[in-house]
Specification:
The complex is a heterodimer of chains A (about 425) and B (about 300). Chain A is mainly alpha-helical and about 425 residues long. Chain A has 16 helices and 4 strands. Chain A folds into 2 domains: about 250 residues, no CATH class; about 90 residues, Periplasmic binding protein-like II (D-Maltodextrin-Binding Protein, domain 2, 3-Layer(aba) Sandwich), CATH 3.40.190.10. The two termini of chain A are about 50 Å apart. Classes of the chains: A mainly alpha (about 425), B alpha/beta (about 300). At the A-B interface, helix 2 and helix 9 of A face strand 5, helix 2, strand 6 and helix 3 of B.
């Protein structure tokens, strides 16, 4: 709910600034003697901005790249949700060969120990050690118990081996050893039962720890943010460059002011991105509900909301940077030379966030990056996944990013206005200092 | 009174280069006006200045006595040089979009788009992408984008470039029709013969200055007399250089165009021609626009 409140505040802020700008411009037009034609309505996302926005949205959503990309992402998300469920539902089964006899009590102990680790057990009677070895080699049994006193395996399992068979071998060895020791101690049945039912002491933490590791939902969110920011900002970059190189920009700017044209473009492509992201999230929620996935349980919804917030904020910030860069280029090769330096902060933020997510606790670098606007979309998403961020820290990062976005947007529109109509060689930053 | 475009004292510098230098001229509505000048004269910069597409050091542009601003520009139509369309966008969608940016309603833009495409024989291509059209058809669509909303002033940068004769005739007819309907049509071109056929008036600029402006008829009949002489067997017109007060203007396929000073007696010229061979043509002509252009820039 907090996230929704942040979003509403963000949109209200953008709307208020737009209205102020419109009023100021309306005042500057007062007193003109020209007859005002039937012009597109003015406002925030009405009139010419709405026209530009809807064109961008329609053209992008209609493109084959968008449709194919959406289907591919949905398939990947479906696989990420369904595969763990399928793996979980088919509980591992351990087949144990029994040479000579194994007491019913020992069998019961082994079965209950296996059940607690989510596995099932079956016992196969073998006539000799040699036969059990052959059955192991043929894959018919996983290991064998000889006379209830010895366990035979094909090869030794290392202590770090977490496979089902390795865990089962270690558990059976420990339990049968315990049982043998209890028998040797000649305890009463009551004493033996008390020892058998012994459980660990409860552990009480004085402070909330952050050692649980990052939630899978946030990890998927970081990857989604990276893919979408890369894709949609490249669309902005190439789209602005194409308008310049095709000279259609001259036709457009003869009717629309540069700031409104650029705003419509950024909103239109952003809306296409948000639609795709929302579709993916809705699809993931519905699918996980249907198949009973636990991926989105617990803190999942909060992380999904956080991912969407940072997708919007990240796009808002980067889109202006890419638009300004696109206005300085006129050819594909010029765009390519701009694309790498532009994508560096994206890549650095993404790599640091992913690396940080694999640790048990968030690193200092991730905590710092969470407040740097260019890397915050990745780092803050990871911090939310760790559950290592308070609401005011989240809000502070959002405010820093918003403030930076407004500053970047102002600078970007100035660059765009100057560069978009300049043709010939690529426009460079020093050109803005030397000429009008 | 016809509407009037006033270009007043435009100055635009690019570093050390002065593209427009106090350029001023007027264009009245209801006529097709040719905007001429050599490469780099400042034609495109002037057109862009009218649409606010370039910063100006000084000067203003007025339409019907009012300074041109964004709302006014929506009543104008502009066709930039070469492209000016989204290559990958469907033709009809593109025209409707541009029409709506000029303030048309969805229905009006839709109707006008299909009327224009029908007229240009492109209705069956309405859902094709612009890049799939031939150069000539792209030029037609681009012209439609400039005219769709019924502009009061339409400015076209090289609209005839790269067209075949039938394409030139078709676009020329549309421009004349627009002017007859009361629109002010200003277009640049290097094809002076076509400009002479289409335009009532011309504006010639060079180095950002106005050089000549006026009605084509007035310019053609003003200045020194023109004499066209064809002498059988002569392809150079060298004989004319011996006649005092006569300047060779141009020689095309044996047709020698001469510029006569005021005092020159045409009988003397005829006699000189006869001494070279049999004279098959000897006639006084108006100045061609190409001559007006060349002489204005000298």
């Amino acid at each position: 709910m907090k996230i929704i409140r942040y979003l509403v505040t963000l949109f209200a802020l953008i709307a208020a600034l737009g209205v102020r700008r419109w009023r100021r411009r309306s005042r500057s037009h007062d007193g003109t003697t020209a007859r005002v034609p039937r012009a597109p309505r003015r406002g925030i996302v009405t009139g010419d901005i709405a026209l530009v926005m809807s064109r961008e949205l329609r053209e992008r959503v209609r493109s084959r790249f968008y449709l194919v990309g959406t289907v591919v992402i949905l398939l990947v998300v479906a696989a990420a949700i369904i595969i763990p469920v399928v793996k979980h539902s088919s509980a591992p089964h351990v087949r144990i060969g029994v040479v000579d006899t194994l007491s019913p009590g020992a069998r019961a102990t082994i079965s209950s120990a296996a059940l607690t680790s989510g596995a099932s057990v079956s016992f196969v009677t073998e006539s000799s050690v040699a036969q059990s070895a052959a059955a192991m080699a043929a894959g018919k049994i996983d290991f064998a118990i000889v006379s209830g006193t010895e366990i035979i395996v094909n090869t030794l399992y290392s202590p770090s081996d977490l496979s089902t068979t390795a865990i089962a071998v270690r558990t059976v060895a420990t339990r049968l050893g315990d049982q043998r020791a209890l028998s040797a101690a000649h305890l009463s049945a009551q004493q033996a039962a008390a020892l058998a039912s012994a459980g660990p002491l409860s552990i009480v933490a004085l402070h909330h720890g952050t050692t649980k590791g990052v939630n899978a939902t946030s990890l998927i969110g970081v990857i989604l943010i990276f893919i979408m920011l890369s894709q949609y900002n490249t669309w902005i970059l190439v789209g602005v460059m194409e308008e310049k190189s095709s000279r259609v920009i001259e036709v457009l700017l003869s009717t629309v002011r540069p700031i409104r044209l650029l705003t419509g473009k950024v909103l239109g492509i952003g809306l296409a991105a948000l639609m795709q992201a929302s579709l993916i999230v809705a699809f993931a929620l519905v699918l996980s509900k249907i198949v009973g996935s636990t991926v989105l349980h617990g803190t999942g919804p909060l992380e999904i909301a956080s991912t969407l917030v940072w997708l919007v904020l990240g796009y808002s910030l980067y889109s202006w940077v890419y638009a300004a860069a696109g206005s300085m280029a006129e050819r594909q090769d010029q765009v390519q030379s701009l694309a790498l330096p532009l994508s560096l902060p994206l890549i650095v933020g993404y790599v640091v966030a992913l690396t940080g997510a694999s640790a048990a606790t968030p690193s200092l670098l991730v905590k710092i990056f969470a407040y740097i606007p260019l890397t915050a979309p990745f780092a803050m998403t990871v911090l939310v996944g760790f559950g290592a961020v308070a609401w005011w820290q989240f809000a502070a990062s959002v405010l820093i990013t918003l403030a930076s976005t407004f500053a970047v947007a102002r600078l970007a529109t100035r660059i765009y206005r100057r560069a978009i109509l300049r043709t010939g060689s690529r426009v460079r930053f020093k050109d803005f200092r030397t000429s009008k | 009174m016809a509407a009037l475009l006033e270009v007043m004292g435009l100055t635009r510098r690019f570093g050390s280069l002065t593209a427009l230098d106090q350029l001023s001229f007027n264009v009245s509505a209801g006529q097709v006006v040719g905007f001429l000048g050599p490469n780099g004269a400042g034609k495109t910069t002037t057109m862009r200045a009218i649409f606010g597409l370039t910063d100006l050091e000084s000067g203003r542009v007025r339409w019907n006595g009012a300074d041109v601003d964004s709302p006014l520009r929506r009543r104008f139509g502009y066709m930039p040089e070469e492209r000016g369309l989204y290559p990958g966008m469907r033709i009809a969608d593109q025209l409707i979009y541009i029409g709506r940016l000029h303030g048309m309603s969805m229905d009006a833009a839709h109707q006008a788009t299909h009327e224009w495409l029908d007229r240009l024989g492109l209705n069956d291509r309405a859902n094709d992408k612009v890049e799939s059209l031939s150069h000539g058809n792209q030029q037609r669509v681009q012209l439609t984008a400039a005219l769709l909303h019924g502009p009061e002033l339409v400015i076209l940068d090289e609209p005839l470039a790269g067209l075949d004769p039938s394409g030139i005739d078709e676009i020329g007819a549309i421009l004349v029709e627009q002017a007859q309907a009361g629109c002010c049509v200003l277009f640049s071109s290097h094809q002076l013969d076509q400009v002479e056929d289409l335009c009532e008036s011309v504006i010639i600029i060079d180095h950002g200055h106005l050089v000549v402006t006026g009605r084509v008829d007035d310019l053609a009949t003003s200045g020194s007399r023109r004499l066209v002489v064809r002498v059988e067997g002569d392809r150079t017109g060298a004989w004319a250089s011996d006649v005092e007060g006569v300047t060779l203007s141009e020689v095309t396929g044996g047709e020698v165009r001469l510029i006569l000073d005021e005092h020159v007696d045409t009988d003397v010229v005829l006699e000189a021609a006869r001494r070279t061979g049999r004279v098959s043509e000897f006639v006084m002509r108006r100045r061609r626009l190409s001559e007006v252009f060349r002489e204005a820039l000298q």
